[in-house]
Design brief:
- By secondary structure, the chain is of the alpha/beta class.
- An eight-stranded parallel β-sheet has the order 7-6-5-4-3-2-1-8.
- The protein has twelve helices and eight strands.
- The longest helix has 19 residues, at 179-197.
Amino acid sequence: MRKPIIAGNWKMNKTAAECRELITALAPKVKDATCDVVVCVPFTDIALAAELTKNTNIAVGAQNIAWADSGAFTGEISAAMLIEAGAEYVIIGHSERRQYFGETDESVNKRLTQALKNGLKPILCVGEMLAEREGGLTEKVCRTQVVGAFDKISASDAEKVVIAYEPVWAIGTGKTATDEQANETIGFIRSVVKELYGAKVADGMRIQYGGSMNAKNVAGLMAQSEIDGGLIGGASLKADDFSIIVGAAK
C-alpha cells in the first residue's frame, strides 16, 4: 500500500504574516491525517513555516532548487540553503517553471539529481499542454519528461521521488481531467517507471494528480487505483479547503 501524499503549492502567494495565519489555522485541522501533508511555500516563508510546523504532522517544501552547490547563479537557491531554512521536500519541473522560466528536461534532471544528492525529497512534475492532449501526444510527452528527468538516476534514488502528473491545461483553468483520464495517465507514467526501474520501484512510487484538485473533486480522484494524492494549487491557500482534501486522502 502506498501512503497518500497531499502537498500544497502556494506558488507566489503568502507573505510571512499570511503564512503564519494559514499554518496556524491549518495545523489543528489536519492533525489526524492518515496521509503525508506538505506545504511548499515561497523561499521567504520556509524558515517561518518550519518553525510553525514543529510538533505537527506538516512537512515543509520549497518550490525550486538550483543544480549547483553554490556560485554565480543570481536568483537561484541551493540545497544547503533550503535545508538550513527547514525544507524537507522540493518541487522540481513544475509546468510554470517549464512554461515561463525555460526549464527543460535536462535542467529538471540536474535539479532532481541535486535534490537527491542532498537528501531532499523531490516532487517531480510532468504533464502535457492542451494542444498536446488534443493531438494525442499525452503519453509521448509524459514518457519523454519522465525518461529525461530520471537520466542517470539510480533505482535506489528513484524510489525517493514523488511524481506529480499535472495536465497543464487543467492548472488554474477550472478544467480538470476526468477521474478516469487522470487515473489512466498516471497508470501510464507508472508503466514508464516500471520500464526504467522494474515493478518494485514502480509499484512503490507515489504518483499524485496535480491539475486543479479541490475539495469538490478530491473524493472521485482519490478513489482511483493509481492516484496517490495531489499537488494542490489554489485550494492549498485556504485552510478549510486544504484540510478537506487531506481528509479525503485515506
